[in-house]
Write a structure and sequence with these properties.
The chain has 73 residues and is mainly alpha-helical. Helix content is 38%, strand content 0%.
């Protein structure tokens, strides 16, 4: 029996699987993109911070370093 057909078969099956997975993912992303109930990303231009959410300063409550346990003691 000749087994030389299995490598091309597995390669084509893998490519087909990746293509189907990508198309399903694209469809899900497009549906989420057009859903008005999904919150916009902070990095989106039309989001709550106009695409610069990563430039916002950290809130003062997150900077309470005196309440943090020391690591090396």
């Amino acid at each position: 029996m000749d087994w030389s057909w299995i490598v091309p078969f597995l390669a084509l099956f893998t490519l087909l699987s990746v293509l189907v997975y990508a198309l399903i993912g694209k469809k899900a992303i497009e549906e989420r993109k057009h859903d008005p109930s999904v919150p916009k990303s902070t990095l989106a231009v039309d989001g709550p911070f106009g695409g610069v959410g990563f430039l916002r300063p950290v809130s003062p409550s997150a900077r309470k370093l005196d309440q943090v346990e020391p690591v090396l003691e």
